[in-house]
Specification:
nine-stranded antiparallel β-sheet, 14 helices, 22% helix, Dna Ligase, domain 1, 37 strands, alpha+beta, 4 domains, 641 residues, 34% strand
């Protein structure tokens, strides 16, 4: 039994000896492997899991300490500010690529009677300290080699000097400005769900105290003002503004030793602006203004909870003085257009009712005292445009919020320039009143019954789209003949010169066939009506209109026994512009502007174009000679004599 125990004990001792031998051998091989791997292995193996980078350089006024926070880098010294992750990672990447072309140990340096000073390593130009946990790796950069294309690098922990080539370690490469993150805000656009900003009281520009908050509706991605008024915001403009904010960059980080708190103005800041998202917030504080080297306006700024002071461009933030107006939704009418059944439009002289019939067509009912109340057919395109334009009516500005009854009366809203009432199945869904702007002739003021805001709108655009005149909505087709009807005779006469300009008849085969004009006459469509009765000596818009052309045509309408022949007569004036020509019809007592198609169809027959000789292959007459002006004598020519 004792012999077996002795044998087992001997075997254990032998195994222990073998294990220790293998361990020492493998450790020696590991050290030899490390030595053969050289500088690249020493650095790249250390940068894995790197926690901090310390940089000290003669070209930098201050040393830089960079810390890793989660997956990002943060500058702790000389100023506390998020680092430019790309720039820091580029430094690490360049360090990992370092490879030596030569290497000698510190002991070899001593043996050759040299020292670190000979290579500029006693007072290195650049020191980079890599820290991971309790371990650190120092890289000291010395002088350039005699040829100037490489530099000496010393690793004290390795007691080795390397000759390396790297742009990273050359002068003017490490720029502290490049290490700071330029962007102020670090919340991505898609994550932001609220924007707050506040101006403090300032008597200089009469801003007064202004606190504004916008919130995002996560259901439809719309934006609303919740302060100072609960109104809709323009979602597109808000998104663009936020995108601009998160893209804005700092101009310059200020060293702490030159910062003067009284000079900065943070005690009574110009602006406090916050972006919120995903349970985090960035708040920017802007203080006093200053001019940069280019004489452009800047502001002192800092982030709340961060002592670092920087400057930003003024124009990027001055926009917020008017942002509570500029970011508001300017489309202030929203209607269910399918449910509209009645529209009442009244002005100072006219009152018109638009009624939707059971067949979905519309009719116009004039309710003016001077005109009969007989309804007539409305133009479907005009009605569609009217409703579309009403539903997309857009303000150019916001005149006032929450006006009193006295304010509205003082602005003449009790006697509106134009009032539009929209009803759906007998229930009023919109009342829009417009009055003249008190200060600007080209603008109107508009207000709806349930909106606390008075809006400013463009006058010309509004009056071109909305009118209380019944004829504004009348069907633009004066007369439309059936397809089988045929124009058998057509004449155009200049009644001022008693000249026949066109005499077309189906009996005259030699006549040129005016197909475009005939087609336009069979469906006679006008551009718009003029609210003035027809007269042969027309007086309209304070101008006497003397008709120049008379157009008459006879049309054969099929009937049971024989075709029925009818005549139509229209009068036209001279074409006043490329798209404007006046016309009238005595049979319907209408005055109107011609459609563009009809203007172009008539034009060839009432306007002659004289061809030049060369266009019809004729000889061109020689130009007449110009007699020379007799020369002036010197006394006449000299103004001083």
């Amino acid at each position: 039994m004792i012999q077996k125990f002795k044998l087992t004990f001997v075997l254990l001792i032998l195994n222990a000896i073998a294990f220790i031998s293998l361990f020492l051998l493998s450790n020696e091989q590991f050290k030899n492997h490390q030595n053969t791997q050289g500088l690249n292995y020493a650095i790249s193996s250390f940068t894995q899991g790197l926690e901090s980078i310390y940089i000290e350089s003669k070209q930098l006024q201050e040393s830089v300490n960079i810390l890793r926070q989660n997956d990002n880098w943060f500058i702790d010294k000389p100023s506390q500010w998020p680092a430019n992750n790309f720039s820091v990672n580029q430094i690490i990447h360049q360090l990992n690529l370092l490879k030596e072309t030569a290497k000698f140990t510190y002991d070899e340096l001593i043996e050759t009677e040299q020292n670190l000073k000979d290579f500029g390593l006693d007072d290195p130009k650049l020191v980079i300290k890599l820290i991971r946990g309790t371990k650190s790796l120092n890289l000291l950069v010395g002088n350039s080699t005699p040829l100037g294309n490489k530099i000496y690098l010393y690793l004290p922990q390795e007691e080795a000097i390397y000759v390396v080539e790297s742009d990273l370690l050359k002068d003017k490469v490490l720029n502290i400005k490049d290490l700071y993150r330029k962007q102020i805000f670090d919340i991505p656009n898609f994550e932001i769900d609220a924007l707050n900003y506040q101006f403090q009281t300032s008597e200089e520009n009469n801003r007064g105290q202004l606190s504004v908050r916008l919130e995002k509706n996560i259901n439809d991605h719309s934006w609303q003002f919740t302060s100072p008024l609960k109104v809709e915001a323009d979602a597109l403009l808000v998104s663009k503004t936020i995108q601009t904010l998160i893209s804005t960059e700092i101009e310059k980080v200020l060293p702490l030793e030159i910062v003067d708190s009284d000079m900065l103005g943070f005690e009574n800041p110009y602006l406090k602006l916050s972006l919120q998202g995903n349970k985090r917030r960035n708040t920017l504080i802007l203080g006093n203004a200053l001019n940069n080297s280019n004489n452009n306006k800047n502001y002192y700024g800092k982030l709340e909870g961060n002592p670092t002071v920087f400057t930003v461009k003024g124009e990027q933030y001055d926009q917020f003085i008017q942002a509570h107006k500029d970011l508001r939704e300017k489309n202030f009418i929203t209607l269910d257009t399918q449910g509209i059944s009645t529209v009442d439009i009244s002005g100072s002289k006219n009152y018109t009712k638009l009624q939707k019939l059971e067949n979905s067509e519309w009719q116009v009912l004039p309710l003016n005292e001077t005109m009969p109340t007989k309804p007539f057919q409305a133009d479907s395109e005009v009605i569609d445009d009217f409703i579309k334009n009403l539903n997309t009516l857009r303000a150019v500005d916001f005149f006032a919020d929450n006006p009193t009854k006295e304010d509205l009366k003082a602005l003449n809203f009790n006697q509106p320039l134009l009032q539009i009432l929209v009803s759906s199945n007998g229930e009023n869904i919109l009342t829009l009143n417009t009055v003249q702007h008190p200060d600007i002739e080209t603008l109107l003021l508009a207000k709806t019954q349930n909106d606390p805001t008075i809006y400013t709108i463009d006058k010309v655009s509004f009056l071109n789209r909305f009118s209380a005149q019944p004829l504004f909505y009348k069907n633009r087709i004066i007369e439309k003949f059936p397809e089988v009807a045929k124009i058998v005779e057509l004449k155009i006469k200049n009644i001022q010169t008693d000249t026949l300009l066109l005499d077309y008849s189906t009996d005259k085969l030699e006549d040129e066939f005016p197909s475009k004009l005939l087609e336009s006459l069979k469906e006679f469509k006008v551009r718009r009506y003029i609210d003035t009765p027809f007269s042969l000596n027309q007086n309209s818009l304070d101008k006497s209109i003397f008709w120049k052309y008379k157009l008459s045509f006879k049309i054969a309408l099929p009937s049971d026994l024989e075709d029925k022949l009818e005549e139509r007569i229209y009068f036209f004036n001279e074409r006043s512009s490329g798209s404007s020509q006046l016309g009238g019809t005595p049979s319907q007592n209408l005055l109107f502007e011609l459609s563009q198609n009809l203007i172009q169809a008539i034009h060839p027959f009432i306007n002659t174009f004289e061809l030049t000789p060369e266009s019809i292959n004729l000889e061109v007459d020689d130009p007449s000679t110009i007699e020379k002006i007799s020369e002036l004598n010197s006394s006449e020519h000299d103004p001083l004599k």
